[in-house]
Amino acid sequence: MKKLSSTVRSLIASSLGLPGMQELLAQEPPDEGISYLFNYYDEEPLPADKLAFGSPERYTIYSQQLRWVKNLDESYSLTVELLHEGMSGSSPWYVMPDPVAGPLQVMSGATIRENRNQADVALSRRGNGFTHTAALGYSTEDDYRAVYGRYSGEKESADGLSTIAWGLSYSDDDLEPTDAALFGRVESATRDSFSVSTSFTQVLNRNALLQTGVTLTSQSGYLSDPYKLVWVGETVLSDSRPDRRVMWTWTTRFRQYMERSKAALHIDYRYLTDDWSVRTSTLDLAWHQPAGENWEITPALRYYTQTAADFYGPIFSTTPGDGYWSSDFRLATYGALSYRLDGVMRKEKWSLSLAAEYYNSARHLALSGTPQDTPALVDFWRFTASCTVNL
Amino acid sequence: MIVTGTVHIYRQRFSAMGCPCEIRLYAPSARSAATAFALAETEVRRLDQKYSHYRGDSELALMLQAAFHPQGVAVDSETAALLDFAACLHQESGGRFDITAGCLCALWDRTTTVPGAKQIEAALKLTGWQRLTWDGSRLRLPPGMRLDLGGIVKEYAADHAALLLKAAGYTSGYIDLGGDLHVLGPHPDGSPWRIGIRHPRSPGAMATVAVPRGGLATSGDYERCSIIEGQRYGHILNALTGWPACGLASVSVIAPSCLLAGALSTLAMVQETARGLELLTSSGLAWLAHDGRFSFGEKLARILHKGGRVNEYFELYSVRQCFS
Amino acid sequence: MTSIHCSISKPCRPLVVLLLAALLAACAPVQPWERGRLAQPVMALDGNPMLSAMDEHVYSSKEASSGGVGPAGGGCGCN
Question: Global pTM?
Answer without folding.
Answer: 0.73
